[in-house]
Write a structure and sequence with these properties.
The chain is α/β, with parallel strands linked by helices. It folds into three domains: 32 residues; 150 residues, Rossmann fold, CATH 3.40.50.1980; 156 residues, Nitrogenase molybdenum iron protein domain (Rossmann fold, 3-Layer(aba) Sandwich). Helix content is 43%, strand content 12%. The protein is built from 16 helices and eleven strands. The strands form four sheets. Strands 8-6-10-11 form a four-stranded parallel beta sheet. A three-stranded parallel beta sheet has the order 3-4-5, with helices on both faces. Strands 1-2 form a two-stranded antiparallel ribbon. β4, α7 and β5 form a beta-alpha-beta unit. α8 packs antiparallel against α9.
Length: 365
């Protein structure tokens, strides 16, 4: 804090001009010293895109640029959050800590449907902005632009599930929580390694062909290689939606789904799942007739996607167990309880556990 050394207006006329000039000079010097001290508490940080950014010694007010960043920040240090990209719905809020449920929503800075603007960001007064996901040139350009416009350091972190440990380590370094970051990274890497170790025993041609159905009509999907479908391959499935030159999410035709005729279907939309058995298109598929349709749990964040963030860790274990129950006999309720306590800071009661898992088994034909 800089004390005002310039006399108030009521007494200023009694101060000689030279004395006034001296006081102004002292004030300017103090401002300069304050800026220098503030700069001394900044340090260079190299993010996942290779950008060197001057960041606070320890960030205390962090703004997440998109939903995956919100989830990551919430799991590691909810006390540093200054808001949500999107306000949690009442059913989502029930699975969050009381202190974070009522945080304000400010919109998203990055990704599809970005709604936040520079003014909204400045009003939140963050000392750091983080984005988690792709580090492609488009996102680098956005980060550089927002940082230049706001003067707030903007960091990119890798959102690939295999980089989870590294991402936690980097964020822990940024916000001064390296020990907790190490604990979560160790747990995440162990879960990924355990699933991989068991799945590796299954030849590729014996893994079920799976279609990921998004949207109210089920015709939006993630192609092979998309961050939205990363856990399909790692969970012991083969994604029927080959890239074919597309990337990320894409819309397919009903005829294409019929041609694929997948062994199993993963869906996000409960209403879509309920109507599959009577729909002229979906009811003809073998997966629907056999009851191999799985509804991903979604509270407080989707287990499979939506967003494609750290929340997919529990989804990876869930999916592997659904597709290969002989290899994953451990009860899912115990795994979910442990995960939610470690990552989401909540102790699930019986009712919450039932809400999560009641629709997560295979649909009955």
């Amino acid at each position: 804090m800089i004390l005002c050394l310039i006399p108030p207006a009521a007494t200023r006329k009694h101060v000689p001009s030279r004395a006034m000039q001296a006081l102004v000079a002292v004030a300017i010097t103090l401002v300069g010293l304050a800026v220098a001290v503030e700069a001394a508490f900044a340090r260079p940080f190299v993010d996942a895109a290779g950008r060197t950014v001057e960041v606070p010694e320890r960030a205390k007010r962090v703004l997440a640029a998109g939903p995956p960043a919100s989830v990551l920040l919430y799991t590691l240090a909810p006390e540093t959050m200054i808001g949500w990209v999107r306000a949690p719905s009442p059913d989502e809020a029930a699975f969050l800590t009381p202190k974070t449920r009522g945080l304000p929503a400010y919109g998203r800075l990055t990704g599809k449907g970005n709604t936040a603007n520079v003014e909204a960001v400045l009003l939140m007064k963050p000392d750091l902005i983080i984005d988690v996901g792709s580090t492609a040139p488009t996102y680098v350009s956005l980060a550089d632009r927002v940082q230049a416009q706001t003067g707030i350091p903007y960091i990119l972190l890798d959102g690939a599930i295999d980089r989870t440990g590294e991402t936690y380590a980097k964020l822990g370094e940024l916000i001064g929580t390296p020990e907790r970051a190490r604990d979560l990274a160790t747990y995440a890497e162990a879960m990924i390694a355990e699933v991989k170790g068991r799945i590796d025993s299954i030849p590729a041609d014996r893994r079920p062909r799976v279609y990921y159905a998004r949207g109210p009509r089920g015709l939006e999907t993630g192609v092979t290689g998309s961050i939205n479908t990363e856990i399909l391959d790692r969970g012991g499935a083969r994604n029927v939606a080959e890239s074919g030159g597309a990337s990320g999410l894409t819309t397919v035709s009903p005829e294409q789904v019929l041609a694929w005729n997948p062994d199993a279907i993963i869906t996000l939309d409960p209403a879509f799942r309920r109507g599959m058995s009577t729909d002229p298109l979906w009811s003809t598929l073998g997966a629907v007739r056999a009851g191999r349709v799985y509804q991903t749990p979604r509270l407080p964040f989707g287990w499979f996607d939506s967003p494609p963030g750290i929340n997919r860790l529990i989804g990876l274990r869930w999916l592997a167990g659904l597709l290969h129950p002989d290899l994953f006999p451990e009860p899912m309720d115990a795994i979910a309880r442990d995960f939610y306590k470690r990552f989401y800071h909540v102790d699930l009661d019986a009712g919450q556990l039932d809400t999560l898992l009641k629709d997560a088994e295979a649909a009955r034909p």
